[in-house]
Amino acid sequence: MLDSAGQPDVGAGKRGRPRSEQSHAAVLRATSELLHEVGLRSMTTEEIAARSGVSKATIYKWWPNKYAVAVEAFLSEMMAESHDPHTGSAATDLRIVLRGLVNFYTESNGRVFAELIGEAQFDPAVRTELHKHLMISHRDLVKTVWARGVATGQFRADIDPDDAIDVLIGPLLYRRLLGQPHLDGTAADTLVDVTMRGLSVRL
Questions:
Q1: Structure confidence by residue, pLDDT tens digits, 97-121
Q2: Which CATH number fits domain 21-76: 1.10.1740.10, 3.40.190.10, 3.90.850.10, 1.10.10.60?
Q3: 122, 152, 177, 192: which sits with the fewest CB atoms below 10 Å from its CB?
Q4: Is the entire prediction scored with pTM above 0.90?
């Protein structure tokens, strides 16, 4: 699993010998590759073991099932791409962050994300991990940018930050998960610009 900073928690497995960082990274790398190649449901723990060179028994010492491995592999990959651009303009920063999310969702990672969201409806552990390490981290990043915008007078101070985040991110997730209307770079720019007009003091 991941630690509070969104990084792999090497102490999260069962008690015993500490897991090798090299083996841990190999498992996550193999899992990411398989997620993109065959998908969450088709991927097996045996395939992860064969590709990573780490035994199936060892993998089960560190994770309860393939879904737990998949969540950590996906989140590790996504966290590496999430950052605060801090350009000096909160409005520009917010556009960059949201367009970055769209780029991530419209690439092969988007399919993996949708599969994990689907699995989360049946697996409380997957749902908890996605909420804790994906949704909260996204919201915290947008909140940071939003707070800068309010402080500099770019965003309206009378809007609750959580409501603003729902308005900003909601349409992107809706289009990603349902596939209609189409979500691409052009659609993302339009959604961001329309939303920003309602949330900004000035453009």
A1: 888 888 877 777 888 888 999 999 9
A2: 1.10.10.60
A3: 122
A4: no
